[in-house]
Structure formats: C-alpha cells, structure tokens
C-alpha cells in the first residue's frame, strides 16, 4: 500500500479550517505545490500562501527559517512536524490511523513523545478524519486566544 496516501488528507477536507478569516495559512509542503494551491484557490476562494523560492529538498536551512517564522504549524505526520518540533514551534499533527512507529498508539500515549511543542489529533479507526479536524479547530482557537492574550 501507498503509505503517503494512507497518512494524507486532502485540501478539500481541510477547507473548513483553511477558510478562517482570522488566520493566514502558509504551505510548508515540499514539492511543486503552487499549481495545486492555485487550483484550490480558484475552486474555493481560499488562498494559502506558497513561496516558490523555498524548496526544503534543496535548501533545508531556508525552509526551517520559514517554519520558525510561523506562529503555529498544522500538518500530517511528515518532515514538517519534525522541523517544527525541533524548533519548538507550537504544532498539531494530524495522525493517521495508519501511522508508523513514531506515533505511539494513543491508548498508550496521546500526543508526541519526541517534541514537547507537538500535540496530536487522531484519525478515527474507520478512516474518518472528522475527530482530528474537530480537535484541530479547537487547537487553532486556542492558538488564536493565546496570541491575543
């Protein structure tokens, strides 16, 4: 099976979070994400900032500077989580029910064992992302409230 597909979530599923007017979302995705985000903007009106000049696969230092510049990170389990966690950036990882060994079974340990700044929201056993997205919505609300305090 395709491990990347099993742990991924589509932009359309993230749209309710991304349409918030009180937040500005930045894509930290590696690869040629710009055209994909432009099609998403055209179909939804949601504009996610993408900087074509930053390529984490070729210049990790510049990419990590971008990660360090954001207020918080919301991502699936990938290198972004490790970069943000290592930098101490408040982070929420959307953890697939097909997660690898790095994500300990939530019945044993909820959250991220490796980085104190990283929390986790879990996909349901049946593959439904709704519980994780509800947790992400609440987490974003707390991030906004903390920034305003």
Q: How would you write the strand order of the largest sheet?
A: 1-2-3
Give me the number of helical elements.
Answer: 6
Proportion of strand residues: 5-15%
Helical/strand content category: mainly alpha
Total beta strand runs: 3
- Shape, principal axes of CA atoms: globular
Give the biggest sheet: 3 strands, parallel
Radius of gyration: 15 Å
Poorly predicted tracts of residues: none
Oligomer: single chain
- State the distance separating the first and last CA atoms: 45 Å
Short structural description:
The chain is mainly alpha-helical.
Provide an overview of this structure:
42% of the residues lie in helices and 9% in strands. It is mainly alpha-helical and 149 residues long. Helix 5 links the parallel strand 1 and strand 2. The model has no long low-confidence stretch (mean pLDDT 91).
Write the layout of secondary structure elements.
Blueprint: H1 3-7, H2 11-18, H3 34-44, H4 60-69, E1 73-76, H5 79-87, E2 91-95, E3 118-122, H6 130-148
Parallel strand pairs: 1-2, 2-3
């Amino acid at each position: 099976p395709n491990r990347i597909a099993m742990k991924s979530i589509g932009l359309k599923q993230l749209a309710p979070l991304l349409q918030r007017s009180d937040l500005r979302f930045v894509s930290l995705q590696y690869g040629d994400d710009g055209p994909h985000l432009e099609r998403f903007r055209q179909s939804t009106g949601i504009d996610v900032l993408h900087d074509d000049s930053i390529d984490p696969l070729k210049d990790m230092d510049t990419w990590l500077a971008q990660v360090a510049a954001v207020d918080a990170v919301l991502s699936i389990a990938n290198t972004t989580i490790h970069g943000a966690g290592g930098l101490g950036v408040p982070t929420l990882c959307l953890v697939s029910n097909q997660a690898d060994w790095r994500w300990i079974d939530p019945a044993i340990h909820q959250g991220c064992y490796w980085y104190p700044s990283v929390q986790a929201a879990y996909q349901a056993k049946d593959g439904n992302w709704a519980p994780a997205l509800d947790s992400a919505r609440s987490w974003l609300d707390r991030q906004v409230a903390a920034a305003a305090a």
